[in-house]
């Protein structure tokens, strides 16, 4: 009994579970370390993993047996057990077995964790997109993963044992980097750096480094582990984006946004002693280059010109492309006279011929200049002032520069007012035509009318065409308005026809925008058809400068109009620069001598000489002549004596509303009838 008690105590103090099994496989005794499901009363050959039952069976058959595996448990998560079964025999036969049970659950979990973490590390090492490098305490490569091979181009075998030198770009940076490495070994924990490195092929690459110093439990540095990523492309993209944020992509000049920041800074430094000028440059007739040679040629021209602008600048000046064919210059420490001198030099540099696709292109520019502080105290105001001055330069014949003047501001706001009112004018039916009679000088017979546009604006009152036609031209409304004039004049002609009046031709002014429409003759043919008006009753007037703007195209356009049967006359003749050879080839009917010559023919012998020459030249080319703006009987007499064919002017009749023109025709019909 005492032995039994001692054995019981011993079993309770054993550091492992122990069970006694009888010959039937029934657990008859256990200590407290045995899991509940294996304690006394449980039959081990039933309801347990087969391998466990087999081990018990084997022990009861007289052999030592081992089971290692999971064992279900009702009181706890499944356990991982090692059970060793030893048969108990009395020398003759086996009458049971002893099982020694070790619960290996937590050791097993640790092993599993270790195993999976090793696996994970191996996978990470092999498949990581980041280079993983292990350095020893002398900064020699201890490990080098496939991503490192990819990023630096050195294979693992080439890299192992190499000092960090081998991926540093050049001597100077090597020194710096080595200092950084040294510091890294001394410090503990992690660090980040962005370094220039060298690829095996000699290329410089930019890498991000995340380093961790490896230290043992005694604080001794064992080396460094680095995670590295090649950020060359990302950095290049960011650098490019930064460049784009400040530059014009086409020309490489700065963009307006950047220049505005520079200007605001310069303004903050400017004072009476350090004035500042802003120049707005617009190429003259650049559209023509795009239209004739194409946009790619236009782009190359802009690049050539931008390079010349850059070359002309002083060190502290700044040039930007505002867009299209517009450039802005910021000229710090510059007064208006100095800006003028600089811009004259710039214009001369830009005027030198450019060679594009075998074409020689000569460019002129119109420039507006605004000065701080008198023309604006911030960038936007200065730019607006320079823009207005540039338009002033355009109005003054282009190819020049103009400084800002206060009246330009009023002019610009009037222009804006006119523009928005003009947009409403057609819809509100505010436009009408007046008709100015034209007479034969030989017998004072009514030859025809010139249709002249009138605008009675609800908001602005009567506005002269001399004021609103240029506005309509600049804001792109002129083609639509011109079309309305054509329809209205043809409508009037067809009314006169319907009334049985024998109508006379009506002359309609054609703007440049209309004359350059590629389908102009088709449009006119359709309009004539729609109003059932004979083409011979329509005369189209285009100014000399419009005809000569693109003489090649004008030649074709005029031939098409001539084929339609409409008449064409050149308006304001003498004010442009007609090429006589083109004039000879243009299909024209009449030259209208500009009223600026007619005004002075009595007193000014030069104007007289010009008018005489025009009349003779027209006669030689088989063209009729009409003198505009005849205001005095002396002018009329002189023109008649020179053989001018026709005249119009206040002396003879002012432009009259349609009703009065109709009355004219009726009176004429009455006299004839
Ligand atoms: N594209 C279009 N342009 C048009 C149209 N209608 C007119 N215009 C152009 O506007 C400018 C001013 O025209 P307007 O104020 O109508 O002046 C015309 C005549 O009234 C004026 N004129 C006629 N006789 C005399 C005169 O004896 N003295 C004098 N001082 N002025 C006179 O001349 C203008 C006609 O000019 P022109 O067209 O050159 O024959 C003017 O440039 C018009 O062309 C339109 O529908 N479309």
From TrEMBL:
Q: Provide an example Pfam family for this protein.
A: PAS
What catalytic activity does the UniProt entry give for this protein? 3',3'-c-di-GMP + H2O = 5'-phosphoguanylyl(3'->5')guanosine + H(+)
Cite the GGDEF domain residue spans from the record.
274-406
Molecular functions (GO terms): cyclic-guanylate-specific phosphodiesterase activity
The UniProt entry, under SMART domains, shows:
EAL, GGDEF, PAS
Q: Which residues form the PAS domain?
A: 136-188
The protein's matches in Gene3D superfamilies, at most eight in alphabetical order, are given as: 3.30.70.270, EAL domain, PAS domain
Q: Name one GO biological process term.
A: cellular response to nitric oxide
Q: Give the EAL domain ranges.
A: 415-669
Q: Which InterPro entries match?
A: Biofilm_reg_signaling, EAL_dom, EAL_sf, GGDEF_dom, Nucleotide_cyclase, PAS, PAS-like_dom_sf, PAS_fold
Q: Which NCBIfam families match?
A: GGDEF, sensory_box
Q: Which PANTHER family does this entry report, sorted A to Z? A: BIOFILM ARCHITECTURE MAINTENANCE PROTEIN MBAA (PTHR44757:SF2), DIGUANYLATE CYCLASE DGCP (PTHR44757)
The protein's name in its UniProt record? EAL domain-containing protein
**Species this protein is from:** Crenobacter caeni
